[in-house]
């Protein structure tokens, strides 16, 4: 079953894994060494990240290295952009209002 990207990034461990492999591809064993958890627990997190497309496996000999998939994150960022414009407009309006109130108190 395909995982939802929101579910995948909702977990702090999965976000930490993404941060690690954004810098360099890692094997599940290498990831497990970075966390206080078993390789099996890391594998469950990897499965979720892989199913939603945030990471991609690459076989190298007997090892599987997981790479960050920036294209999938770009899709997510593009979706967020529509909301970013809205909240930036609202924050700018709030800044203007607060500046006006501050000036009126002087």
TrEMBL record:
SUPFAM superfamilies: Winged helix' DNA-binding domain. InterPro entries: ArsR-like_HTH (IPR011991), HTH_ArsR_DNA-bd_dom (IPR001845), WH-like_DNA-bd_sf (IPR036388), WH_DNA-bd_sf (IPR036390). SMART domains: HTH_ARSR. Pfam families: HTH_20 (PF12840). Coiled coil: none annotated. GO terms for molecular function: DNA-binding transcription factor activity. It comes from the Bacteria. Residues 1-88 form the HTH arsR-type domain. This is ArsR family transcriptional regulator. The lineage of its organism: Bacteria, Pseudomonadati, Bacteroidota, Chitinophagia, Chitinophagales.
């Amino acid at each position: 079953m395909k995982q939802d990207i929101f579910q995948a990034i909702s977990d702090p461990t999965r976000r930490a894994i993404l941060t690690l492999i954004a810098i360099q591809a890692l094997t599940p064993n290498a990831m497990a060494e970075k966390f206080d958890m078993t390789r099996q627990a890391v594998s469950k997190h990897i499965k979720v990240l892989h199913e939603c497309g945030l990471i991609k496996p690459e076989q190298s000999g007997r090892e599987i290295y997981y790479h960050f998939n920036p294209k999938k994150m770009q899709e997510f960022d593009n979706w967020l952009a529509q909301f970013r414009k809205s909240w930036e407009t609202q924050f700018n309006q709030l800044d203007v209002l607060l500046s006006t109130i501050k000036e009126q108190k002087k």
